[in-house]
């Protein structure tokens, strides 16, 4: 096949207007990015099997910003994958999900009225449903970062997707998905510590999850307790999401980009944050150097302390902040 990169324009449902690296193939421009491991986006046409058909057109302009245009969700997905690629490369020096330079496929318009998105190692691809009435695609950028990060976790710590390790697996995706949203810093999607705040999955405008106080979703755990591993992994993740928020921003009330947070602590302690960039370095180092498939919350405390010691020094402010943030979510 012919590889001739071009710069295209996209108008996504959630990303607004963005540039995309496309591939010129004869008279067609394809949503395929040779500068990022050949990552591409295909149309599943509401089916659930196979690779779908690669998005391509003669204009090198994709989508119109509405979900009714089939290309708009594809723009979100292709831009989300590109941003996630760049985030891992420029933040951690990671060359793709498996660190082997190979890009993943994004499949949009997966299934009918399918209200979910997911990563699969089998196809090395992520898939996005079109949501309720096939009119609410789940292609927000923090979801893209979340799903691709499941691929990173599978290629590194391989955290088992059940019990406390499953909560850590889910939290890793929420943490990195959130970091991708901050990295993108889109005017159409001001970055925040909420997950899925634009896709309106609940139908009432509320986000899917909250990192500052996970229990605001009605189900997630703010703090560790002996039963937390019995919760669904999307709820036991709350403990680590809360840890990451506290480590980044500290406790109490705060407003950033118009989003208000009020993060409590188990022990009533007042914490100062070290910033999300350092917190992300610590989490990534723990994920890739210390977590194993069976790491639990106590193990995650030890692993992130080792990572903080490696990166910033034993008894550094950062090391002490990690210890205090875990204590603040009752992981001792
Ligand atoms: N969207 C969900 C997730 O990535 C799919 C699942 O339940 N695994 O966590
Ligand atoms: Zn997930």
TrEMBL record:
GO MF term list: metal ion binding; metalloendopeptidase activity
Residues of the full protein shown: 214 to 545 of 545
Active site, UniProt feature: 147, 234 (proton donor)
Polar residues bias: start-end ranges: 37-63
Top-rank taxon, per record: Bacteria
Transmembrane segments: none
Residue ranges of the region described as Disordered: 30-67
E.C. numbers: 3.4.24.-
One GO-annotated biological process of the protein: proteolysis
Protein name, as recorded: Neutral metalloproteinase
Function text: Extracellular zinc metalloprotease.
Annotated Peptidase M4 domain residues: 8-153
Subcellular location(s) of the protein: Secreted
Native source species: Streptomyces rubellomurinus (strain ATCC 31215)
Domain Peptidase M4 C-terminal: 157-331
Principal location class: secreted
Family, per entry: Belongs to the peptidase M4 family.
Upper lineage: Bacteria, Bacillati, Actinomycetota, Actinomycetes, Kitasatosporales
Cofactor section: Zn(2+)
Coiled-coil spans in chain: none
An example Gene Ontology CC term for this record: extracellular region
Keywords tagged on the record: Hydrolase, Metal-binding, Metalloprotease, Protease, Secreted, Signal, Zinc
